């Protein structure tokens, strides 16, 4: 495997779990899929629509998101929002992420000693 391909594969693995946390965090305020894609992209999360929409359905099935259709506009849009359980999950996962970041930083700094 060449270095570029290996790096791309590892980055994809790293992002896979963080996208869940990012979605649950952003969707504390109702939003529809395309706007969520844009918000994630602006924050630096590269997610394709064919990855995001199945993820949103899975999170909804797990009870972490809820959705409602907005038919007030010419084009109906499905809005998603984090449930109480989803917000609690996001809080826990963000704390876990912070602990992992601290651990990696400690390992990195210890490596320099």
Concise synopsis of the structure shown:
This is DNA-binding PadR family transcriptional regulator. By secondary structure, the chain is α+β, with helices and mostly antiparallel strands. It contains four helices and three strands.
Question: Features of this protein?
Answer:
single chain; 113 residues; alpha+beta; Arc Repressor Mutant, subunit A; three-stranded antiparallel sheet; 4 helices; 3 strands; 67% helix; 12% strand; globular; Tscrpt_reg_PadR_N; DNA-binding PadR family transcriptional regulator; DNA binding; Metal_resp_DNA-bind_regulator
Secondary structure tally: strands: 3
Count every helix, treating DSSP H or I runs of 4 or more residues as helices. 4
Span from first to last CA?
Answer: 32 Å
CATH class, please? Mainly Alpha
CATH-defined architecture? Orthogonal Bundle
Percent in strands: 5-15%
**Alpha carbon gyration radius:** 17 Å
Q: Choose one word for the global shape.
A: globular
* Percent helix range: 55-70%
Pairing-aware structural class of the strands and helices? alpha+beta
Report the CATH topology name. Answer: Arc Repressor Mutant, subunit A
Major beta-sheet overview:
3 strands, antiparallel
Q: State the fourth-level CATH superfamily.
A: Winged helix-like DNA-binding domain superfamily/Winged helix DNA-binding domain
Look at the structure and give the mean pLDDT: 92
Spans with pLDDT under 50 lasting ≥5 residues?
A: none
The structural domain count equals 1
How would you write the strand order of the largest sheet? 1-3-2
SSE order, one letter for each helix or strand? HEHHEEH
């Amino acid at each position: 495997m060449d270095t570029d391909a290996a790096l791309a594969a590892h980055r994809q693995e790293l992002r896979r779990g963080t996208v869940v946390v990012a979605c649950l965090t952003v969707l504390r305020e109702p939003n529809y899929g395309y706007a969520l894609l844009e918000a994630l992209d602006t924050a630096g999360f590269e997610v394709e629509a064919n990855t995001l929409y199945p993820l949103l359905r899975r999170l909804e099935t797990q009870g972490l998101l809820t959705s409602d259709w907005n038919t007030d506009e010419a084009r109906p849009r499905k809005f998603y929002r984090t449930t109480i359980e989803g917000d609690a999950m996001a809080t826990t996962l963000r704390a876990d992420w912070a602990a992992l970041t601290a651990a990696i930083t400690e390992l990195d700094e210890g490596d320099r000693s």
